[in-house]
Recover the amino acids of this structure.
C-alpha cells in the first residue's frame, strides 16, 4: 500500500504547489498590468503561466522522484524522461517570454510613431526576428535533448570531426533554401518590402500579408493568396506602390465625341471630387490627351491617400462623369457615323 500512496502523495503535492504558484504568478501579473496600462508587457507575460507551471512541476518531480519511489525499477528512465520534458518546457517558456517582450516593444513603438511606413518596416523586422529566435531556441533544445542520450554523446566527436564536410554537402544541397533565408534577412533589414505594402508582382496587384524567412504571401484584391519565395523580391523587378509613402495618383480616361464640352467637364470634376471622401485634395486635373478620326481621349488625374482609395476615386469619377454626360450632354458620347460622306467642293469623287 505504501508503494502506491507514497508516489501519489508526492505527485499530488507537486501538482498543488504548481497550481498555486501559477495562480499566484497570474494574479501578480494582472495587478501589475492594471497599475501600468501604458505598456502591454505584463498582460502579454500572462501567456507564460502555462509553460511556467510545466517547468515548475517537472523540476519538482525530478528532484523527488527517487525519494517518492515513482517506478523504482525504472528510476533512470523516469529521470531521463523528466529531463527531456524539462528541456522542452524551458524552451517553450523562453520563446513565450521573448515573444512577449518583442510584441510589447513593437506595440509601444507603433502607438507612439505617426509614420505608418516606418511602423510597417519595424513590424516586418520584428516578425522575422521572432521567427529566427524561435528557430534557434528549438534547434538548441533539440540538440540538448539529443545529448542526454549516451549514444549521442559518444557520436558527438565524430560528428564534429566531419562537420566541415557535412557543412559543404548541406550547403550545396540546400542552396535554394539558404538563398531564400539570406534574402529574407535582406528584406527585413534592407527595407525593400514590408508587411502591408501594396505591390504588383507578375501583373498581380495585392498587399503583402506575411513575410517569413523563406516565403512571402501577397493577398490580392479578390482575396486570393500568392505565395512567392523571398528571393524573387531581391532578384527581379516589381512595383512597390507604398515605397516612399502610401499616397497615390490615378488616372481616368474617356473616349468622347469631338463636340464634348471639355471646359464644363473640368468644372464638373471639381464638383464631383468634393463629394468623394477618398479624394485627399492634393491634385485634380482634366485634359485632352489624344485624338482619333472619330473620338477624343480625355484624361482626368486624381489623388488619394493609398492604393485602395485611389481605386475608389477613379471608379466614382468615371461612373458619375459618364452619367452626367449621358443626362446633360448626350452629344458628347462617341457615335458611329453611318451617313454617306459629303462630296468635295471641287466636284464629286471619281
Amino acid at each position: 500500500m505504501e508503494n502506491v500512496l507514497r508516489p501519489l502523495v508526492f505527485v499530488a503535492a507537486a501538482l498543488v504547489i504548481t497550481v498555486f504558484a501559477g495562480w499566484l504568478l497570474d494574479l501578480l501579473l494582472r495587478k501589475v498590468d492594471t497599475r501600468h496600462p501604458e505598456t502591454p508587457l505584463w498582460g502579454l507575460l500572462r501567456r507564460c503561466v502555462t509553460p511556467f507551471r510545466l517547468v515548475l512541476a517537472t523540476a519538482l518531480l525530478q528532484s523527488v522522484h527517487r525519494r517518492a519511489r515513482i517506478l523504482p525499477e525504472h528510476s533512470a528512465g523516469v529521470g531521463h524522461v523528466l529531463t527531456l520534458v524539462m528541456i522542452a518546457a524551458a524552451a517553450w517558456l523562453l520563446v513565450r517570454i521573448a515573444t512577449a517582450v518583442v510584441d510589447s516593444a513593437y506595440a509601444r513603438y507603433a502607438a507612439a510613431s505617426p509614420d505608418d511606413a516606418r511602423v510597417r518596416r519595424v513590424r516586418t523586422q520584428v516578425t522575422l526576428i521572432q521567427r529566427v529566435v524561435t528557430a534557434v531556441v528549438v534547434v538548441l533544445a533539440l540538440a540538448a535533448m539529443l545529448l542526454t542520450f549516451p549514444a549521442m554523446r559518444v557520436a558527438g566527436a565524430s560528428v564534429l570531426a566531419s562537420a566541415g564536410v557535412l557543412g559543404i554537402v548541406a550547403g550545396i544541397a540546400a542552396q535554394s533554401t539558404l538563398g531564400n533565408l539570406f534574402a529574407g534577412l535582406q528584406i527585413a533589414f534592407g527595407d525593400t518590402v514590408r508587411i502591408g505594402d501594396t505591390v504588383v508582382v507578375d501583373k498581380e496587384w495585392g498587399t503583402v500579408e506575411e513575410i517569413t524567412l523563406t516565403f512571402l504571401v501577397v493577398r490580392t484584391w479578390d482575396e486570393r493568396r500568392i505565395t512567392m519565395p523571398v528571393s524573387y523580391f531581391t532578384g527581379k523587378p516589381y512595383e512597390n506602390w507604398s515605397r516612399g509613402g502610401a499616397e497615390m495618383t490615378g488616372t481616368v480616361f474617356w473616349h468622347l465625341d469631338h463636340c464634348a464640352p471639355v471646359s464644363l467637364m473640368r468644372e464638373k470634376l471639381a464638383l464631383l471630387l468634393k463629394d468623394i471622401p477618398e479624394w485627399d485634395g492634393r491634385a485634380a486635373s482634366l485634359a485632352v490627351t489624344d485624338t482619333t478620326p472619330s473620338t477624343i481621349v480625355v484624361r482626368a488625374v486624381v489623388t488619394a491617400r493609398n492604393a485602395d482609395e485611389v481605386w475608389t476615386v477613379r471608379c466614382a469619377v468615371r461612373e458619375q462623369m459618364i452619367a452626367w454626360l449621358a443626362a446633360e450632354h448626350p452629344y458628347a458620347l462617341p457615335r458611329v457615323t453611318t451617313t454617306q460622306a459629303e462630296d468635295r467642293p471641287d466636284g464629286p469623287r471619281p
The radius of gyration is 34 Å.
